[in-house]
Description:
The protein is an alpha/beta fold. The protein has one domain (31-287): Acetylglutamate kinase-like (Carbamate kinase, 3-Layer(aba) Sandwich), CATH 3.40.1160. The protein has helices at residues 5-28, 40-43, 46-61, 73-82, 98-122, 159-166, 189-199, 227-235, 243-255, 271-277, and strands at residues 33-38, 65-70, 89-90, 93-94, 127-131, 138-142, 151-156, 170-174, 176-178, 184-186, 204-209, 224-226, 260-265, 284-287. The strands form four sheets. It has an eight-stranded mixed beta sheet with strand order 5-8-2-1-11-13-14-12, sandwiched between helices. The protein has a two-stranded antiparallel ribbon with strand order 3-4. Strands 6-7 form a two-stranded antiparallel sheet. A hairpin with a 5-residue loop joins strand 9 (176-178) and strand 10 (184-186). Helix 3 packs across helix 5 and helix 4 (73-82) packs across helix 5.
Amino acid sequence: xxxxxxxxxxxxxxxxxxxxxxxxxxxxxxxxIVVIKLGGHAMGSDDAMESFARDVVxxxxxxxxxxxxxxxxxxxNDLLGRLDIKxxxxxxxxxxxxxxxxxxxxxxxxxxxxxxxxxxNRQGGKAVGLSGKDANLIQCAQTDPKLGLVGTPRIIxxxxxDHLFKADMIPVIxxxxxxRNGETYNINGDTAAGSIASALSADxxxxxxxxxxxxxxxxxxxxxxxxxxxxxxxxxxxxxxxMIPKTETxxxxxADGVRAVVILDGRAxxxxxxxxxTDHGAGSMIRA
Length: 288
C-alpha cells in the first residue's frame, strides 16, 4: 500500500523528534572512546554488515572514537572443515596448533577483517585493518600449554590507535597477538576487546553477540547489573556457558577503568545506536 503525503510527513516528524531527543546523548559521547566487539555469529548477512558499518560511521561523525574488535569463529570452523584439519579440545576449548593457527590468521586478518574494513569504507568512513601483531599492539603470554598457541594479553600498546584517532580513522582489529619470542597467538575476541578497552580507558565496551543480554532465572533480560550481582549469578548457575567469559570480561574491564560494559544482540538493527543515543538502550549494562 502506497503511503500518503500525511503518512510521510508523520515519518519525517518522528525522525526529527528522535534526532532532537538524541541531543543529550550526542553531547555525552562527544570525544568518547567506544570499543565494540563484533562476534562472528553477530556478523550475519551482507545487509547486516552494511547496517553495522553505517552505524559505526555515524558514531564517528557525531564525535565518538569507535574501535572495532571482531571475532570469526564460524568462518574459522568452516575453513578448517574444508581443509579437513581436525580440531582437538581440552575442557571445551580448542587447541590451536600451528596448522590451525595458519587458518585462524588467514581468516581473521584476511577475510573477516578486510570485509569489515571495506563495509565501513563503503559507508564513507576511513577504516584501517590491523591485527594485534601490528605495531606490537597486543603482546601476549601463552594461556595454557595444553591449548597450544592461545594467548592472554599482557601488554597493550595503544600508540598506533592514538595516531589513527588523530587522523579520523577507525581501527578494525583482529584478535591476534605476539609472544615474547615472536610467536603468533590466537586470543579470545572478548578478552582482546576488554584488554584494549581497559588500556584506552574507554567510556563503553559493547559486546555484540547473538543473545539479547544477561538473563535471570526466568529468562528475562536484565537491563542493568552491578558487578556484585554478576558474581552472585555466576556462583548460583544463573549465568552459565558462553555467557560466563563475556561477563568475566566485563568485570575485568570495569575493574581496569572502563566506565561500563554492555552485552547486547548484534543481530538487532542499529543496536549500537539504540544503546548509545536513546533512553531505551539495548541489552544488559554492567557497572562497577
